Known about the structure:
single chain, 362 residues, alpha/beta, Alkaline Phosphatase, subunit A, 10-stranded mixed β-sheet, two-stranded antiparallel ribbon, globular, binds zinc ion
Amino acid sequence: MNRTFLVLAFAILLFACSAPVEEGEAPELPQKAKNVILFIGDGVGIPTLNAASLFGYGKPLSLFVQQMPHSGLSDTSAANSWVSDSASGMTAIMTGTKTNNGVVSLGPDTIRREQDGQILKTLLELAEEKGLATGVVSNSSMADATPAACYAHANDRNKTGEIFRQILEPRFGDGVDVVIGPGRDAILGATAELEIDLAKALEDAGYTFVLSESEMLEAAPGTQRLVALYPDNEYDLATSADSAFEILSRDPDGFFLMVESNNHSEDVEATLSGTVKMDRMIRSLAERVGPDTLVIFAADHSYAYRIPGGGPGDEVISLVTVEDTHTAEEVLVAAQGPGSEAVRGLFPNTKLFSIMKEAYGW
Length: 362
Ligand SMILES: [Zn+2]
């Protein structure tokens, strides 16, 4: 490269750097999210969404999540397996790091059931540290892998007591604010084994602690910190999500809310009607949030539902073939609101963490 060229290049660079930026002409920065609502369809892969649309609406592409403005496909593999379970799947989404199946928000250096690996700070814990309100709602046990990977760290997903006690002993921030869902007896039993008087410990930590849907509905308007543990599945997930949304919305600093709808079983009718209900819940909340809220739908892994035949007018349930197993293919991610334009193309599940984090502007 000759000297004259170098001098010229340097002059151009200087000019470029010093070029005045006129006020009012700067491109508008993308708006940041004040709130993020992450919906997880546990096991709700593309085959299940496809079947649920046919089941619920008699035609394809009729679910709300199939019509959100931004969508992409997420890989779901775990660090040690092509096929993910909910623990490694949710760890990737909440921490941006792939780990081994069965491991809850600890690194892939974890030896399952034996030894903790690196602690991976979750998006919920980050939100706690930033002063946001946080919540988890599910139709699975509140100590099960998907909610657990938001607020706890454990070398095995089945360590119910150890997982749930981390609500009382958070590693980052002052603990998740709202916890609503089933698992009452298992959680009370497992924490009692660790000699924790859960009711007392939660009250000492500033939570309102209730054990039924009706008590939850009574408590929600007057509390900022609520743990509701239901005895069974006789309650409405969307109602619980609404209450969590109302409580968290009262925090002027913003919030992070994760709502899981677990819909994968051999029971085709329950799975498909559960998926349609989940979709209606997402639509209803997405229509009520302000423009400052990122709403994102993802699945932690897929599930082996297939429709190998049939046509318009056919009864859908009998068309579905089921193999009761998680499957490895990519899953749909769909989003609206600030930061949602990053949901496009195909990407690793770990990218969901950075999409949400960057949406907040962190
Ligand atoms: Zn799962």
